[in-house]
Amino acid sequence: MEMTTNNDSLVNEISAIPGGEHVNLCIQCGSCTASCPNADLMQHTPANIIALIRANYRQEVLTSTTPWYCLSCYMCTSRCPRGVKPTNIMHAIEEIALREGVESEKTTTPALYRSFNHYVVNNGYVPEAWFMMRYLLTTNPFKAFSMASLGIGLFSRGRISLKSRKLSSKSRRELKTILAKAETLGGAD
Amino acid sequence: MNKYNYFPGCSIADGAAKAYNESTKEIARVLDIELAEIPDWNCCGSTPFSSCSELGSICLAARNLSKVKEPGADTVTSCSACYILLKSASEYIKNDPEVKRKVDESLAAAELAYNGSSNVRHLLDIVVNDVGYEQISSKVTRPLAGKKIGAYYGCQIVRPKFGLDHSENPQLMEKLITALGAEAIDFPLKTNCCGSYFSVSTQDKALDLMRRIFESAHSSGAEMLITVCPLCQLNLDGYQSKVNKKYKTDYKLPVLFFTQLMGIAFGIDEKKLMLKKNIVSPAAILSAGKKE
Q1: Which residue of A has its CA nearest to B100?
Q2: What was the pLDDT predicted at A187?
Q3: Mean pLDDT, chain A, integer
Q4: Most-buried pick from A25, A140, B178, B240 (CB within 10 A)?
Q5: Tell me: the pLDDT tens digits for B220-238?
Q6: How far is CA B240 from each of CA A29, B135, B167, B266, rounded to the nearest angstrom?
């Protein structure tokens, strides 16, 4: 583990992403860690990762499994006595890690998100069956067997189908234009 | 008649939670609520997209809000994930000039503009606060006397704090259950996380979180649950048998959308409420003690 000497400190990058703005207000009380249903699975606890951000342990933070185990239940955020938003800080770490391609490969959550987002960006709509299949194919197709009984249960009740709603081509173009522009504006100023 | 812009979201419009859409339309008719669906709306992005691009997800919401048919009316959604995404985006656009500038610029690239006027609300908010418990009670034709129903809120309707109700001990749905003539069962883990997408990616953990919720509801006396979120419903309904298998338990807790329960109490045909789409069937509990 080594300290980076990057002039753009991680704390500034995180602060520039909506939701990361209060990272510097943390007093390390640990309420977030105590509230987190997944802290036991995380490589670094929520309070720990905030401390690492502020100490500019960039590589350590961006490759940690921690953000990918965040369930976005917002318990930490609603309990934080300083108005820090640890949930959104987790999202901000994920955003930077994905942009730089250094996300942790120890969980399949990034693959799940990529599959979901493929449909958000290209269709403007997420067809659940296709999103699931795409995820299973890119991770572990054999996992499909363990999900078969649920799949059949849902299919027989008409709760999943291969046909899906589709946005007009004009709307899809609009969406791509907006997202492309937003990407150039990024989080950083 | 109260008019609202309606954002159904993917799961409710055409996915696993179709029953939520249909039962919402049914109770809206009874309660004289008009829902004008946003034309050609796009996915809110949910947790996966907002995790990867916070600004992009605010732009997704802004496109939807720029398309509402009734710019002066509130925008309502019945999905907790859509709610939190649309709501936090609209708050950022209202309160953070730097974010608003970037959103304006992104929308302008597609010749769109959003003036920030639409107020985003959850369907539960509309039902209990705009219509009100008294009005709801007056529409009940099939009181659910004796049914013990637990309200499961999950996370994203009460957290982060948008002021709808207490973030860990909300009471809106308990009062709703009482207004429908049933017995509300308050249980400690009603705002704990159901495991979200982890039911797929990190299943052991999700099953453990669900087991705790079932244990809490069951030991408090609930025989049925109602919920406000498509993913919570899918998890607690669809994975209940897996929880039972893994932990050698025997939970049989039907998990209904709150709109389905309202529809039942209003005497709406059960086919229209799509009760057969529920994996854990509520039929036995609903017919218990019923005199034909």
Answers
A1: A18
A2: 52
A3: 90
A4: B240
A5: 999 999 999 999 999 999 9
A6: 36, 35, 26, 28
CB B228 within 8 A of CB B157: yes
Determine the distance in angstroms separating the CA of A133 from the nearest CA of chain B, rounded to an integer. 11
Q: Is the ipTM of this complex over 0.85?
A: yes
Strands B120-122 and B75-77, how do they pair? Answer: parallel
In chain B, DSSP finds a helix count (H) and a strand count (E) of 15, 8
DSSP collapsed to 3 states, chain A:
CCCCCCCCCHHHHHHCCCCCCCHHHCCCCCHHHHHCCCCCCCCCCHHHHHHHHHCCCHHHHHCCCHHHHCCCCCHHHHHCCCCCCHHHHHHHHHHHHHHHCCCCCCCCHHHHHHHHHHHHHHHCCCCHHHHHHHHHHHCCCCHHHHCHHHHHHHHHCCCCCCCCCCCCHHHHHHHHHHHHHHHHHCCCC
**With an 8 Å Cβ cutoff, are B107 and A71 in contact?**
no
From the CA atom positions of chain B, what is the Rg in Å? 19
Q: What is the mean pLDDT of residues B54-63?
A: 96
Q: Is B174 helix (H, G, I), strand (E, B) or coil?
A: helix
Cβ count near B45 (within 10 Å): 28
Verify cis geometry, omega within 30 degrees of 0, for the bond prior to B160: yes
Judge contact between B181 and B164, C-beta under 8 A: no
Q: Is B60 in Cβ contact with A179 (below 8 Å)?
A: yes
Phi, psi values for residue B35, rounded to 5°: -110, 110
pLDDT of B18 strictly over 60: yes
Dihedral of the CA atoms A130, A136, A139, A144 (nearest 10)?
-170
- Taking residue A177's Cβ as centre, other Cβ atoms within 10 Å add up to 17
